[in-house]
Amino acid sequence: MNVIQRNNVKTAGHGERAMVFAHGFGCDQNMWRFVAPAFEADFRTITYDQVGAGGSDLTAYDKARYATLDGYAEDLVEIGRALDLKDAVFVGHSVSAMIGILAAKHAPDLFGRLVMIGPSPRYIDEGDYVGGFSETQIEELLQFLEANHMGWSSQMAPMIMGNPQRPELGEELTNSFCRTDPDIAKAFARVTFLSDNRADLPGVTVPTLILQCTDDIIAGRQVGNFVHSQIPNSEIVILAATGHCPNLSAPDEVIAAMQKFVAST
Predict the structure, then answer these.
(1) Residue 94 catalytic?
(2) Which of 145, 162, 152, 153 is nearest to 245 (CA)?
(3) Is the pLDDT of residue 84 over 80?
(4) What are 246-264's pLDDT values in tens digits?
């Protein structure tokens, strides 16, 4: 199958260097519409949909391949190879930050810089590590999703988005969650919230920017600080933005931090 069609890959921009944008759980590439265009003058921008989301080919979904985040990382590597990418900038939101790390591990020449927005290598507390959720809380969240996809979406999306003074943002994320294929969403949620990529962080060798929101119920400040402490050549920027999706709620702030980071290349 043509990987470009499978993942609904879109390209824009004019630069020699590429910048790849990967969306988080329950979202699609439309979530980058306020950020990606700001880089089109200097980069070839690439957006795509994870299999099961947006305009991706749902028939390409394979339970075995996507039983771990490695399957999604393999897709990203295949996209990179199809577009002949080298030394690109990868921008990953939420779970896609970890997907980007795994792709860079599989194909070290693919990315020269990483930008992670709201990353979490592990959502469940364990020992001294604080991921933000107990194992019971995550299991209850997953069981709620499996029992009532629409109800879970309408309840959780506004909480994840934050910014209650702007209800249209929560509504957009709710609609995005609801558009995702329910069976694939349930499987991807389980993979996302039960994954543990802490051991992969020290192996990241390229310069990395971590964008951490001030008040994020999904990936709190302690998680961002942990990611920063584990990735050798990383910097963290604490955004004034709140919620888990600053690419929608505070795109100008995200753009400014990213522009400063890539300008030092």
Answers:
(1) yes
(2) 162
(3) yes
(4) 999 999 999 999 999 999 7
Residues 264, 107: Cα–Cα separation, whole Å: 23
Run of H or E including 254: helix 251-263
**pLDDT tens-digit series, residues 149-162:** 888 888 888 888 88
- For 51-106, give the DSSP string: TTSTTS-GGG--TTGGGSHHHHHHHHHHHHHHTT--SEEEEEETHHHHHHHHHHHH
With cut-offs at 50, 70 and 90, classify the pLDDT of residue 99.
Answer: very high
According to DSSP, the β-strands at 208-213 and 88-93 are unpaired
51 within 8 A of 57, measured Cβ to Cβ: yes
Alpha-carbon distance of 188 to 116, in angstroms, equals 19
**Local structure of 132: helix, strand or coil:** coil
- Say how far apart CA 165 and CA 122 lie, in whole Å: 29
Q: Tell me which residue range forms the domain holding 211.
A: 3-123+196-263
Q: What's the token pair of residue 156?
A: 């959780």
Residue 170 maps to a domain: no
Strand order in the sheet with 43-47: 10-13, 43-47, 17-22, 88-93, 111-117, 208-213, 234-239
pLDDT in tens, 17-76: 999 999 999 889 999 999 999 999 999 999 999 999 999 999 999 999 999 999 999 999
Which of 49, 75, 93, 94 is labelled catalytic?
Answer: 94
The verdict on residue 215 lying in a domain is yes
In whole angstroms, what is the distance from residue 16 CA to residue 74 CA?
Answer: 24
Catalytic residue chosen out of the listed positions 23, 93, 149, 244: 244
**Residue 82 forms part of a structural domain:** yes
SS (H, E, C) 43-57: EEEEECCCCCCCCCC
| Domain total in the chain | 1
Residue 7 lies in a domain: yes
Given the residues 216, 228, 234, 249, the one annotated as active site: 216
